[in-house]
C-alpha cells in the first residue's frame, strides 16, 4: 500500500502523514527532508544553489542517517532546499531512494510535492493537502514565535511560487488526488477525512 501526500509548505502534510503511517502500520518518509539535507550541505559548503553539478554531486553522496533534525528545520534551509529542488539533476539523484522506500513492505506513506505525480504515480491513494497562505503562516508562526508573521507569509509565498513554477516536477495536485483544504480543520478532522477515503 502506497499513500502519496502532496501539498505546499505548512499545510499539515507531515502531521497527517505521520499520524496515518502510525495508524495503518506503514513506513513514513518526509521527502522534503531529503531536499533540506541537500540544501543544508550546499549552505554548509558555501556551494552555489544554482550550480547543478555541484548540487547533484552533494545529492548523490548524501548520507541520509547523518543529519540532525534541528539543523534541517528553519526557513533558511527551506529556501536552499527549494532552490536545489528546482534542479532536475538533484531530483534525479533522489528518485531511487524515494522509490525504494515506497516499495518496502507492508507499505509506506510519503509526503512531498511530487509524490503522486512523479515518484509514485501508481500510489493506491493520493491526497493534496493545502490551506490558505494566512492559515499556513499562522501555523508556522506558532513554531517560531520570534519571527514576524508578515515575514513568514512572504517566505511561504516565495517558496510556493518557486515550487509551483519550476519546470521539473512542479507542485500541483495529481489528476486523481483527493484535495483537502485544511485552513479551518484540526489535525484530527483532517485525519478522519483521509481515513474515510482509505477505509470507507
Ligand atoms: O516543511 P515544508 O513544508 O516547509 O517544506 P519541506 O516539505 O521540508 O520541503 C522543502 C522544500 O523541498 C520545498 O519547498 C520544495 O522545494 C522541496 N521539495 C520538493 O521539491 N519535492 C518534494 N517531494 C519535497 C520537497
How much is the radius of gyration in Å? 16 Å
Name of the top-level CATH class: Alpha Beta
Distance between the termini: 16 Å
Structural class by sheet pairing and helices: alpha/beta
Query: How much helicity do the residues have?
Result: 40-55%
Number of helices: 10
Gross geometry: globular
Low-confidence stretches: none
Mean pLDDT: 96
Summarize it.
The chain contains 10 helices and 5 strands, in the order E-H-E-H-H-H-H-H-E-H-E-H-H-E-H. The chain has 200 residues and is an alpha/beta fold. The chain is globular and about 50 Å long.
Overview of this structure, please?
By secondary structure, the protein is α/β, with parallel strands linked by helices. It has a single domain, classed as Rossmann fold. Helices cover 54% and strands 12% of the residues. The chain has 10 helices and 5 strands, in the order βαβαααααβαβααβα. It has helices spanning 13-24, 32-44, 52-60, 69-72, 75-84, 88-102, 115-119, 133-143, 149-165, 187-198; strands spanning 2-6, 27-30, 108-112, 125-130, 178-181. It has a 5-stranded parallel sheet with strand order 2-3-1-4-5, with helices on both faces. Helix 2 packs across helix 3 and helix 3 (52-60) packs parallel to helix 6 (88-102). The chain is globular. The two termini are 16 Å apart. The mean pLDDT is 96. The chain binds cytidine-5'-diphosphate. The site of cytidine-5'-diphosphate has 15 residues, from helix 2, helix 5 and helix 9.
